[in-house]
Structures are given as C-alpha cells and as structure tokens.
Design goal:
Layout lengths: L4 E5 L3 H12 L3 E5 L3 H8 L10 H10 L3 E4 L2 H5 L4 E4 L14 H14 L9 E6 L7 H6 L12 E6 L9 H6 L5 E3 L3 H10 L8 E3 L1 H29 L6 H8 L23 H14 L5 H24 L3 E5 L14 H11 L3 E5 L10 H10 L3 H4 L4 H5 L4 E4 L4 H10 L3 E4 L6 H4 L9 E3 L9 E5 L9 H12 L3 E7 L7 E4 L2 E6 L8 H26 L4 E5 L6 H11 L2 E6 L3 H8 L5 H17 L2 E4 L2 H9 L8 E3 L24 E6 L8 H14 L5 E6 L5 H10 L6 E5 L3 H10 L2 E4 L13 H8 L4 E4 L2 H7 L3 E4 L4 H12 L2 H19 L5 H12 L18
Parallel strand pairs: 1-2, 1-4, 2-3, 4-5, 5-6, 7-8, 9-10, 9-11, 11-12, 14-15, 14-18, 15-17, 18-19, 19-20, 20-21, 22-23, 22-25, 23-24, 25-26, 26-27
Antiparallel strand pairs: 12-13, 16-17
Helix pairs in contact: 1-3, 9-11, 9-12, 12-13, 21-23, 22-23, 25-30, 28-31
Length: 862
C-alpha cells in the first residue's frame, strides 16, 4: 500500500514513539507540539523523551526526510490523510480526566482546514490515541467537524488506543497485544487498515465507546495486579513465605491473561497512565452512582506500600538515606506520579538527609508535564541528584533501591550501607545473602543513631483525618521532622492500627452518648480508659513520648499528661478546640450546676497541667489566660485555617443541582448546637411559604442529631429540595462546594458559638463561596466581608438573607472573591504553621536554623 501523510499532535511519550514508528515503516509524518524545545530536538534528530530505541528511530527517519516537527498545525494538516491526537489527558482536581488538550488539538485541526489544501482523496481521519473517557470522541471530537467544512474536505473520526509501555515502547509499537479501531465511519476504518498494514493484520473493528473503555479496563487491571502481588507479599512474609517464589509459580498459569510484568511483588505503581486512569474511572463511577470497591482498594493498597517503606526507614532511626532510582520504572525519565518521587518527598518532609541517583534523569532535559510535576514535588532536585551511585551511598546509613542496575549493585557491595531496602527484588542473591533483619528484602546491621522526637496526639470527638485541624497539625509536624502518633475514636473505614500518610494511628470503637448528662459521663469515662490503653500501647511499641498533645472536648486527658511527665518527662500541649463549660450551658441552658462545676474543674486541671496552650482564636486565648490562669507567653493563637491548595473550586457538576436553578450547601457536624434544624426551617420558609422552588439544598455531614434532622426534613415535606448525605468522602464535598452558589453557617448565638471559630465558614471561603451566617463575634472576625449576617437565631431573617444573596449574582461573585483572597492571604494554614510548630519545638527542645522554619504568617490573623 502507498505511504500515507500523517500529522501527530503531541510529542510526549506516546506521540514520539508513534511518530517515529510510523515514519520508520515509510509513512511521511509531521509531529506537532506547542513546546518549541521538543520540536527543535526532533528537527536535530534527537528524542525529547528517554525511551530505548526511539532516538535511533528519530535520527534515522529525520535523516531520510520521513519525519519532521513543527509548532504550526497548518503545516502538518496540509494534504494530510490522518491526524493522530496523542496529547496529554491529565487528572483534574476531582479525579476527572482533563480534556482541555484534546479540545485544543481538535480545534487547531479544524482551524487549519480553513487555510490549507485537503489530501488527494478529500477525506481526513481524526484519530484519538490518548486515553479518554467513553463519550469523548462523540462528545468532544466529532462535534468540532459537524459544521460545514471547507470545500474539498470530509472528516471521519475514530478511537485507536495505544498500548505502549514506557521502557519498551518501540517494541510494543511494532508488536502490540491487539489493534483496535473504534469508529462508525467506513472511510476512517479503511484509513486505519492502511496506516497499520505493516503489522500484518487488520484492526479489530469495535464501537467508539468500546475502544475508549478498553484502555481503562486494561490499565485498571494492570494496577490491580500490581496491588494484588504486593498485598500477597505483605501477608505472606510474616509467615516466612518467599512471595516471589509463590508468584513465579502462580504465573506459570499463563492461559488466563496473566502478565508476569505486573504479577511480581515490588513497589507501588505509578507513571502517567495507571494513576490518572484509575482516578478517571472512579470519577466516572462516582458521577454515575456506582460503587467500585476494588478500585478504591487498589489505591489504598498502593498507598500502604509507599507508607510502609517510609515507616521502615523511620523505624531504622538513621537520618542519611540514599534513594537509588527516581523515575517510575527503569530505562525512562518519566517522573510523573512516580512512587519514588512521592517516597523522596515524604522522606524529605520527615527531615531525612536524602541523596538521589538515577542513571537516566537529567533535570535539564525534563520537559512539559514531566518537568512541571517534578518541580511541584521536588523543586530542589538538582541539589539532591548525584552522578554516581557511590556518591549517593557516601556516608549513607540506609539505601533504598528502586532501580538495581549493575552500577548500583556494584556500589552496594563496595559501600555496604547499614541497611538496604530493595523495592523491586532485583538485587540478586549476592546482596540478598548478606545478613539481614526479619522483614521484606531488607539487609541491615546495628548502628547507633540519633532519636527522632516523638509527638502523640489524643482526640475524643472526631477521627483522623476527618478532624481537619489535627490532620493539618500532623502534616506540619511530619514536615518538621517529628514522629507523629494519633489516638482517636474509629471512623467508618478506620482500622485499629494503621499508618496514614506517615502518621501512625491507633483507634478504639466509640461509645455514643444518649444526650443526657449521665450519658456524657459514661461516654467520657469509656473514652478516657480506651485512650489510656492505646497510649500505653503506643509507648510500649515505640518508646518514650516527647510531647503529648490533647485536643478537647472533653477536658479529661490531663491525668495522662501528668503520668507521662512523671515517668518520661513528657511535655504537655493543650490544643484548645472548645469551651466545655459553655458547651454544657448551650446544650443544657437549664441544666444543673453540679455538672457545670465539674466541667470548670476539669478545664482548670487541664490548663494547669499544660506546659503550653494553642487556642483557636483570641476569645479562647483570653479564657486560657483568665479562667485558666496561664501566662501570656504560654498561650499561642493557632487558627484552624484551611489549606487553599487542597480546598479550592473545581469544575461545577450541574447534575448536583437536581434540576434546580440554585444550590445551597451546608458542611459540618449535625449536633444540638450546630443550627441545622434552623436550616431546615429556613428551607421550609423559602420553598413552601415563599414559593422558591428553584432552590435546592445539600447538607453534608453527620452527628448526634442526624436521624432527628432527617425526620424533620420529611415532616416539612422537603424531600424533593433537601438532600442530606451523611458523612461523605472529600471528593464529594469538593464537588458539592464547587457547584453550590453559597454556603450556610447557621450556628445560633449561644455562650459557645458566639466566641467560637467555625471551620466550615473558612472552608466555604476557600472554595470562593459567599456565606450566610448569624451575626456572631468570631464569625465576623473570620468571614469579614465574605458573609452576610442575619439577626441571631431568627429563621425568617436567615431565609431572607439566603434568597436576597441568591438573587444578587454580582454580590455573590464579589463576596466569593474576597473570601478566597482572605483565606489565601491571611487565614490559610501555611500562615499558622510556624506558630504551631514553634510551640512543639519549644516543648521538645528542638532548635532550628532560620532556613528550617516554616514560612512566617502573612498579614493580619482572623
């Protein structure tokens, strides 16, 4: 068959291998990319990506005039028979596939047709090779060519997914596992038959949706196989079983599509395909209301593999670490979502001295998304990289081996570091036969080490990471080099003992209160005993605790602090979340005075036991100084500012409005003092009395009053307008807040709420949502101009404020912008972190150089 004229859009891994491969079999190929550096490299006969064999193909085909590159789409489209779209499809903020590059490439193709001549046949086929969700070709690509085309042009579209593995892409291009063409256009199918005739077999003709879904199915299965092999290894090694031998025998059954490349215990999966495609599948399932526990479990297993390696390094107690291998697999420079990059970032965050060796990585040659990813994760990569494995191992106590090439193995035998962690099981018998500790492919010998300071945090009313403040504190302490343990009640998915993002967590089954005074006493006594048991367990497992942090409510953990101080000299920081006496007066306004006196006694005992107090706002700090008798220098205001990098608006999902014009959101706990009953009464007034049926409400969260509130909603006849989700994943919260028009802070005025900072208010602001709230002292301090303030505890005034704000889109936009700016510039956790870590440093006796200090707060606190 005669050669074809081909345009390849996107010169990343897929585009480069595809362009070079097609040119090598005689097609005339023009590569298109917006990155001038990539274009120039191909013009010079060099490859912009590291892939065995591809540079030789590019050099050969460029020299023969079969391959060239340009930034001008018109040059590529002129007389072209086929356009292959190979651009990136990264994950969006919520796991969805970002189709922006696809849409831009298609628009460029269509625009070029207005200015250049068509092929001799008059027919041009636009083919998507990138991984895209089902519906993309029909919904994004084909519509671009639905309008009348210039004279002489006709267009067909198709989906022909690629199955190229980085590191063996050239061979995979020449010998693919299958060739699939999804199209309903016969001319497009004929074009694909001509284009890939060199393979000696015609493409398998399927529907467009089948071709789009096939790549997701393959990548999800590959990821699941990797996680399965690692899960088997984690279970079997504690029984003295060689998991690699098990899997070698397991893979002898090759009749059921078992690939040895994936079914081998090793390290976590990563790269540019499996993570984003798993996220995209989960997003598709979530938007369709479909549960996918295997995919969720695959992510969890992959995370456990990384966390476990971090824990093993931490447990060794040595500070100098050599990481041998950084890209997600050997023989490639792809750092996108490499688990080795994630491992390096976490080790640095824990204060380890890290050196990295990778024979392929050269920061000066990284381009495009690859460069952006590593700059975000490891901005100082140049400082970490060394040229030889011997340089990385010089003075290193621990070697973490990701890529075990010959130079690495020789350097390990020469240097003999005190501990070796082999992530892939490729070191060979000579090194593995060295004396080693029990555990997964680890070689070690005893050596003295400096001890990492340890912080133990106890909570009673929430679990981590659901408690946002405590989780931010944990991450700050990890970045500051602390070993962090948390004891808390279990959440719906919690385990009795697990490690989450480097934080060791012990949980106990919570005992709910019946809402009476006796019920609270029983709950608190049970919680104290359960917490004390786990604190003792944590101390036995890991040794002395340097700093104990107790978070209230309730104020019951001071006896543990005094016992640990007597035993180990442990210092105590009281993280002052709530005012328990005011909480009692708010819940039981006519309650007996004896419980109130008991709560005041427990609060005073906690303040007196504390070496330092971190209060969430100035009102609480005043209570610590006056009622608690603390000196001013021992009280620090650390506000619960949100993380604006994590909490930010993503794309709206119109389906969440459920056919209504407006969506109003509530996020938070649903207890007696939280005012959710007021929201329901206000919704009743708005919908049933004012007749505003164009407004929908979504209430996110759970709590003691949740069942009663659901009954109240149904009694008011609001089932069509009010959805109450219970506690939901972060992704759902983000989707709802990204779609909503405003957020509600209905906390009624009472002795507690008037002086408390409401986390939900600042989270709304982080998402750029205007807020409707009652006029409370600390709410005004937090929200400022980002909220409208209704007369306290007045349902109709609250409802009127909601309606008025919904009917004023300009005010909503202005308030949302001001709120987001206030979070970023003043309230964000990054502005609180230095003060918080400074308190712990002072108690732990840690002194830091100025360069090690977290960034100082910027602007006025709130």
């Amino acid at each position: 068959m005669p050669p074809m004229q081909v345009a390849v859009f996107g010169l990343g891994y897929v585009g480069c291998v595809t362009a070079a491969g097609l040119a090598s079999v005689g097609h005339r190929v023009v590569g298109v990319d917006v990155d001038q550096l990539k274009v120039d490299m191909i013009r010079d006969g060099r490859s912009p990506v590291v892939e065995p064999g591809v540079e030789e193909l590019i050099a050969d085909t460029v020299s023969r005039g079969l391959l060239r590159a340009t930034t001008d789409s018109r040059e590529a489209i002129a007389h072209a028979d086929v356009s292959l779209v190979c651009v990136g499809t990264p994950s969006g903020a919520h796991g969805e596939t970002d189709l922006g590059y696809i849409a831009r490439a298609v628009a460029d193709i269509r625009a070029a047709m207005d200015e250049v001549a068509p092929p001799a046949s008059g027919h041009h086929t636009v083919v998507v090779r990138s991984t895209v969700p089902p519906g993309t070709v029909d919904g994004v690509v084909s519509p671009a060519f639905a309008d009348p085309l210039p004279h002489g042009w006709s267009v067909g579209t198709a989906m022909v997914p690629e199955f190229l593995r980085e590191g063996s892409g050239v061979d995979d291009f020449a010998h693919p596992p299958f060739l699939v063409a999804g199209t309903d256009d016969q001319a497009a199918l004929d074009a694909m038959t001509r284009l890939f005739a060199f393979l000696g077999r015609p493409p398998r003709h399927v529907s467009v949706g089948t071709a789009e879904g096939l790549k997701y199915a393959c990548n999800a299965f590959h990821a699941a196989k990797i996680s399965f092999a690692n899960e088997m290894a984690r279970v079997l090694r504690f029984h003295g079983v060689d998991s690699r031998e098990v899997m070698d025998v397991f893979c002898e059954d090759d009749k059921l599509n078992i690939s040895r490349a994936y079914l081998r215990p090793g390290f976590a999966f990563g790269g540019s395909c499996l993570p984003k495609d798993l996220r995209s599948l989960q997003h598709m399932a979530r938007t369709s209301g479909v549960d996918v526990p295997l995919l969720a479990g695959t992510w969890q297993t992959n995370e456990l593999v990384i966390s476990e390696v971090v824990d093993r390094v931490v447990a060794l107690g040595r500070r100098r670490v050599a990481l041998l291998g950084l890209s997600f697999k050997s023989n490639t420079d792809d750092l996108r979502e490499s688990p080795n990059v994630e491992l390096a970032e976490r080790l640095m965050g824990k204060g380890f001295e890290l050196r990295v060796y990778d024979p392929i990585i050269n920061p000066e040659r990284l381009v495009g998304a690859n460069r952006r990813h590593v700059e975000a994760k490891l901005p100082h990569l140049n400082r970490l990289l060394v040229c030889r494995p011997e340089d990385a191992l010089a003075d290193a106590d621990v070697a973490v081996v990701a890529h075990a090439g010959v130079p690495v193995r020789e350097a390990l035998l020469e240097r003999r570091p005190a501990a070796i962690i082999d992530l892939q099981g490729d070191l060979g018998s000579t090194i593995e036969s060295l004396p080693r500790l029990p555990g997964h492919r680890m070689v070690t010998s005893p050596a003295p080490h400096d001890r990492t300071p340890r912080v133990l945090i106890v909570i009673q009313n929430l679990h981590v990471p659901f408690d946002r403040r405590v989780w931010l504190e944990c991450q700050s302490l990890l970045r500051a080099g602390y070993d962090v343990t948390v004891v808390c009640p279990a959440g719906p998915q919690s385990r009795p003992h697990e490690v989450i993002d480097g934080v060791e967590v012990f949980t106990y089954r919570p005992r709910p209160s019946d809402g009476t005074t006796r019920g609270f006493v029983t709950e608190y006594l049970y919680s104290f005993l359960a917490t004390a048991r786990l604190v003792l367990r944590a101390r036995r497992r890991r040794g002395r605790i340097d700093v104990l942090q107790a978070c209230n409510p309730p104020d019951i953990f001071w006896p543990l602090a005094r016992w640990l101080r007597l035993r180990d000299g442990t210092r105590f920081v009281f993280d002052h979340h709530d005012l328990c006496p005011e909480l009692y007066r708010s819940r039981f306004p006519d309650g007996r005075r004896l419980p109130l006196r008991a709560l005041l006694f427990l609060e005073r005992a906690t303040f007196r036991a504390a070496d330092a107090v971190t209060s969430t706002n100035d009102s609480y700090a005043s209570v610590a100084r006056t009622r608690g008798g603390k000196a001013a220098q021992d009280v620090t205001v650390v506000r619960t500012g949100p993380d604006p990098d994590r909490l930010k608006a993503g794309p709206a999902e119109p389906g969440l409005r459920r056919g209504h014009r407006h969506l109003v959101a509530y996020l938070g706990v649903m207890g007696p003092q939280d005012g959710v009953d007021i929201v329901l009464d206000a919704a009743h007034h708005i919908v049933n009395e004012l007749g505003r049926t164009d407004i929908a409400f979504t209430l996110l969260g759970g709590g003691d009053c949740y069942p009663d509130l659901v009954r109240q909603r149904d009694r008011l006849g609001l089932g069509e307008h009010v959805v109450m989700t219970g506690r939901v994943p972060d992704a759902t919260v983000s989707s709802v807040l990204s779609t909503a028009d405003l957020g509600l802070s209905p906390d009624p005025r009472n002795p507690l709420n008037d002086v408390s900072t409401m986390n939900k208010t600042m989270e709304y602001m982080a998402f750029g949502l205007p807020v409707v709230a009652f006029d409370l002292v600390e709410t005004r301090v937090s929200a400022g101009p980002a909220a409208v303030y209704a007369r306290p505890n007045d349902v109709e005034a609250f409802a009127a404020a909601i309606v008025d704000l919904l009917d004023d889109p300009q005010a909503r936009a202005t308030m949302g912008r001001l709120g987001r700016e206030r979070v970023v510039d003043e309230l964000a956790w990054q502005h609180q972190e230095k003060a918080y870590v400074g308190v712990v440093d002072r108690l732990a006796g840690v002194r830091r150089a100025a360069a090690e200090q977290p960034a100082a707060p910027v602007g006025r606190g709130a």
